[in-house]
What we know:
- This protein is α/β, with parallel strands linked by helices and 393 residues long.
- It folds into 2 domains: 5-13 and 260-392, Aspartate Aminotransferase, domain 1 (Alpha-Beta Complex), CATH 3.90.1150; 17-257, Type I PLP-dependent aspartate aminotransferase-like (Major domain) (Aspartate Aminotransferase, domain 2), CATH 3.40.640.
- It has 14 helices and 12 strands.
- The chain has a 7-stranded mixed beta sheet with strand order 2-8-7-6-5-3-4, with helices on both faces. It has a 3-stranded antiparallel beta sheet with strand order 9-10-12. The chain has a two-stranded parallel ribbon with strand order 1-11.
- Strand 6 (175-179), helix 7 (191-194) and strand 7 (198-202) form a beta-alpha-beta unit.
- The radius of gyration is 22 Å and the shape is globular.
Amino acid sequence: MNERIYMDNCVTSAMAPEVLEAMKPYFSEEYWYPSSFVSTGEASSAAFEGFRKVIAAALNAKPKEITFTSGGTIANNIALKGLALANSGEGRHIICSTVDYPDLLTHAGYFEKMGFEVSYLEPDELGFVSADKLKAAIRQDTILFMSTMVNHVVGTIQPIQEYAKVLAAANHKIWFHVDAGQAFGKLHLDVAALGVDTLAISAHKIHGPQGIGALYVKKGSRLGPYIHGVRRFEGVQPGGLSLAAMAGFAKAVEMVYQDLDGHIKQLRELSDYLLEQLESQIDYVELNGPRGEGRVCHNINVSLDFIEGEAITVMLDMHKITVATGSACASRGLKPSYVLMAMGKNHVQSHGSMKFTLSRYNTKEQIDFTVAKLKEIAVVLRERSPLYKAIKK
Length: 393
């Protein structure tokens, strides 16, 4: 194949051509910030409200509960620091898990330095963190639980609604923040049914533009100010956000949510086919994480025994195939994936892990080509592996 085969869509995804077209007017003719009394500002205000309604509808939220941010990471920062700041007088205990997204875990470290105490929940061998463990960790001074809806490494879908029931049953308010960056556009998300207080999403994971995200803040939630400045748009992030990026975000959401079930079905069929081909054509392949509905529709993570994922990634790249090894957001060094290690995998399994995350632009033909090249590469690398040679004797 001559074109680039891109299977690292959990990091970012290709912008849809329709998204770019929706953005173009706001780069040139309609670049104004919202304001009152003048036609330019009122036009921008109307556009902004329209974009916000699109995002809100996708989450079953009220438009006033949606605030645009300059990305998912900023959304997490605003929510987590805001909740901790506003509610530290009620307690200084926070709960998360050892397999959460780096945004959340780096916050956990920050909170510890600021004098909070953090409890870390361990997953099972498939990456699930049980609601029972959350219940056991709750204390009278617990003020915040933060969770990642879909694990960014192995695709495990966490039981968010079960968490919400546990938190609701506590004898005091515990705020609940969820990073839904890998879930948005891949699952049906109803913030009211989920029972969350804040939830972060991002545009560029669903073929929208980079540099724009959104934060759901349930009405009545208390957030301390994290970023200070002039408010150009209604919401919790001050400063000059991009109206063009908002337009692109809204268009990307419209494209996915006009047939979300069909979109999920397409990705599920592709990922199931990929796993089937990997397991049938390549020896010593082990799936990391759950099979079936417990796993998000676009993620397949496998370990190839006896060889290094870094070497596989480089050799696939020579064939214009982009995949990931380990955690896409982990250190660029040769450290094992903290998620796989927490799930009980060893260093060899972690270093031999490969993550394929698919999009609507991937095809079965691309998968066939990728698996064929991976099979060739596995043979070459295993011939050089002393571990593989040892079992073949």
